[in-house]
Amino acid sequence: MQNRWQEDKAEKVKHSELELRVYTSRLLGYDKSLVLHGGGNTSVKLSEKNIFGEEEQILYVKGSGWDLETIEAAGFAPVQLEYLKKLSKLPELSDPEMVNQLVTHQTRASAPVPSVEAILHAILPYPFVDHTHADAIVSITNTADGEKRIREIYGNDVVVIPYVMPGFDLARLCAERFAAEAGAQTIGMVLLNHGIFSFGQTAKESYERMIALVGRAEDYLKQHKAWEFAPAAQSVSSSGELARAQAKLRADVSLAAGFPVVVSRHANERTLSFARRADISTIAQQGPATPDHVIRTKRLPMLGRDVGAYVAEYKKYFESLEPKAKERKSMLDPAPRLVLDAELGMCAIGRTVKDAEIVADIYNHTIDIIQRATALGGYRALPAKDIFDVEYWDLEQAKLRKGGKAPQFAGEVALVTGAASGIGKACVESLLARGAAVVALDLAESVVTMKSGPNFLGLQCDLTSEEQFKKALVQTVERFGGLDMLVLNAGIFPGGCRIEALKTEEWQKVMRINLDANLMLMRECHPFLKLAPRGGRVVVIGSKNVPAPGPGAAAYSASKAALNQLARVAALEWGGDNIRINSLHPNAVFDTGLWTEEVLAARAKHYGLTVQEYKTNNVLKVEVTSKDVAELTAEMCGPLFAKTTGAWLPVDGGNDRVI
User: Fold this and answer.
1) Cys-Cys link to 490, which of 169, 283, 418, 507 (CB 3.0-4.6 A)?
2) CATH number for the 7-223 domain, one of 3.40.50.920, 3.40.225.10, 1.10.3300.10, 3.90.1150.10?
3) Which of 207, 317, 363, 556 is catalytic?
4) What is the separation of C-alpha 416 from the centre of its chain, rounded to a whole number of angstroms?
5) Which CATH fold topology does 413-589+625-651 show?
6) Helices 394-401 and 95-104, interaxial angle, to 10°?
7) What single-letter DSSP state applies at residue 577?
8) Which residues are within 8 A (CB) of 446 and not within 5 positions of it... i.e. 6 or more apart?
9) 363 counts as catalytic
10) Which residues does the chain have with pLDDT short of 70?
């Protein structure tokens, strides 16, 4: 544990206890060994005047949906403190009614829904309260004699609470235990199989007590040689064969889930060493480190790649525990969210790239927790029923539903060539906007950094090199799990040259880039497109020169025409594989690197037109932009064109020669 309190930074916000609360909350959130992805919560009790001028005690508690690492003052929900204390004395209170009472007794209508542990924060008699799911604490409590070890570490410095599901029952139990056991020396509270609370008179005191308490747990683990574990030496490999195995896994998981998923491979010495442990079928099949992880990771990871067997076991789990629930439940999708495989290592699964990243983060910490608990005598998670109750808890499911409707291409992967500028770059943007994970390839180095975010992967690649492309394809699959959409945009347009002056080497160069490279791309992508959950889609960016060639462009026109014919043959051959291939034929798209202001002005002058007249020299008198082409490209990959293959579609404002 590192104490990250900085006096100079705290000094800047000392005028506001709420801002100090924000500051220390972010310090906690920064440390992933304390909280992960929305976990943990903090609060501060303040005295404020209400609309009548009366002093009122308000609990500012972290709101649902906010992350401690990035929380702001607006992320804290202000709730009437005395009312919360009255609620804690009720004999019982259902979860929906508890949330109703919390929301209806906020003092700001626009505030987020208060944490479900708001009542617990309210009953602790300290201005500042911090709660984390510290890895070190969970490592110790998830053992057969966890409670005994916790008491050995802390003595009377903490109150120890047996596991109870978060919510009203936990708050009431904590109130009873705290009143009976807390003394002047009490600075924290450990919830077995759940986490730890600290509290204090100031934000600094509460924060530093958290750091000190968790530090003592870490020291205990170190003393018992249960802290760091060097992974056994492993051979970490990438190959087309492993990529195809990963894509097949993604196809099977997507089928079980009922929607496309991202499957991100994490293969390193640490994950492979864990996945290959002789006791993996025991230690990894106990349950999650803390119950709230279940909504992200499911109760158990899948060992190996038999998705059917995992689904069958999940259904048994649901059918055995659902009848014991207080109210009827509808089964969630039975697909795994985490896979441990001796060859693939660790694969994290999610409906979006962000979801898969969260799963990976959680399980990377879970690996540490399992290994530490095992070294203490054996990892032991909560019984399946307790995990089921949280997995099917309406309040936890509400967190997932807050994300709203998934974007059109959520869970799907697109690869765009010639992506660093012009139409290719616009295609990347259009596909990202629809929720796809996008891999951008280009010869230009700028493609690597042209976009940021987890959904984007930019790779510098010479498409005339089969070796380079195969490597890029493996990287695509390792990062996202497969391939659903392929946009063939890369190509060159050489300077005007009549046939009698066209050199063989220039002809071959154009054919190699515009035709041969695309044949290789289609061939290598076929096994992955064939596994696409919603069917593979290929969009070829052709040219007006296919239906209406012009003089001086023999190599370009012939290469694009041949590519279009190749696409038509592929449409015939691949229809049985549920892959559709369509072509777009743009013309006069001037917002690309090829068309500088000087070139545009020169071409317009050549035809006796102004630049604007030249740009709109078509039947509809409209300007065609890269974005126009990209938007239609994205739509061709969507449901509107689900029953169309082998089609040619102009994007040219109407060209009289084409018409």
Assistant:
1) 418
2) 3.40.225.10
3) 556
4) 21
5) Rossmann fold (3.40.50)
6) 60
7) G
8) 420
9) no
10) 396-403, 593-594
